[in-house]
Design brief:
The protein is of the alpha/beta class and about 325 residues long. Helices cover about 40% and strands about 20% of the residues. The N and C termini lie far apart (about 50 Å).
Length: about 325
């Protein structure tokens, strides 16, 4: 009898919690350093989701390291009450191949809440590089084999993945220089300490516009319409056939988060994705807001599974690990 009473009390408490959610600040864990492209997406989204969630405070918690696995693990282990969420990018699909061991399972230890955006990438170089367009860059690459430094935001980062594809496409090995985040990598690129980087438009657009780096092309199938980027060719158009990659972002909760709480978060996410100010901020950086079926949880999960299947052989062939 006591067990029955306890079970009923627990259920009642859970229902009450869902009905009153959110009653305190929500933490969104970003498994990358502050100031980077994913951090920027998270901060813009938090502002857009705040009102639909009743003006609750949404706090960004940057927990960087190990190809995003440290922050991701923190959310996997968090209480499934809707107050600790995860905003991550394509790393959700690459960690299974990049990590020798994982303290969580991407496909079963999270509740998928929906996707946010697709972010194109740009190939950029230090401002002192003696190549003003991709044709000149291609010649420079061939003349400087063994001397080229290619920066990235850390093993498993979006810039690392794009760099792997670029080296494979041009068939030139480069010295990979991993940083602890996008911001320090970009600082060294602008300062001339590294030669090249392939990174998200959310991080490169302002630097391109200010002419602090040289832009050589975008990683999309078609040219972008963003004012600062619309004059750039696609890397496919300049000769890298099949070179197409975008970095998507999604929102997640710990496994076991109540369905009613998930529904409230998902509803707030859908409102945020239609928020004019959020759209304006993202489009100014070249990001494309998700409007297709991947906004829904089930389709989001299917998409990530397909991305895992796509990236695993590429990463395994490169022989790189984040731990």
């Amino acid at each position: 009898m006591k067990k029955v009473v306890l079970a009923i009390a627990t259920l009642a408490a859970g229902l009450a919690g869902a009905q009153t959610y959110p009653s305190k600040p929500i933490n969104i864990v970003v498994p990358f350093a502050a100031g980077g492209p994913t951090d920027r997406v998270a901060r813009d989204l938090a502002e857009a989701m705040r009102k639909p969630l009743g003006d609750v405070a949404i706090i960004i918690d940057n927990v960087a390291g190990a190809g995003s696995s440290i922050g991701t693990s923190k959310v996997a282990k968090a209480a499934p009450d809707g107050y600790t969420l995860l905003l991550n990018h394509i790393a959700m699909a690459t960690m299974p191949a990049l990590l020798r061991t994982m303290p969580f399972k991407v496909e079963s230890d999270f509740e998928y809440l929906g996707m946010i955006n697709d972010v194109p990438m740009t190939l950029v170089g230090r401002p002192s590089l003696p190549a003003q367009n991709y044709k000149e860059l291609s010649a420079w690459l061939n003349q400087n084999k063994g001397k080229i430094n290619l920066g990235n935001a850390g093993i498993g980062s979006a810039s690392h993945l794009c760099g792997l594809l670029f080296q494979n496409a041009v068939q030139i090995d480069m010295t990979t220089v991993p940083y602890k985040g996008t911001a320090p990598a970009m600082t060294d690129l602008m300062g001339g300490q590294i030669d090249l980087m392939c990174d998200q438009t959310t991080n490169t657009t302002q630097q391109i516009e200010a002419k602090k780096v040289i832009a050589y092309g975008v990683t999309t199938a078609k040219p972008l319409t963003t004012p600062a980027l619309k004059s750039l060719p696609t890397l496919q158009d300049v000769g890298l056939k099949g070179f197409e990659v975008t970095i998507w972002h999604g929102l997640y909760a710990p496994k076991g988060t109540p369905a009613d709480v998930q529904a409230k978060i998902h509803a707030a996410l859908k409102v945020a994705l239609k928020d004019p100010e959020f759209i304006k901020k993202q489009e100014a950086l070249g990001a494309v807001i998700i409007t297709d079926k991947r906004v829904d949880a089930a389709e989001h999960k299917k998409f990530v599974a397909a991305e895992i299947a796509k990236w695993t052989p590429i990463i395994k062939a490169a022989g790189v690990y984040a731990d």
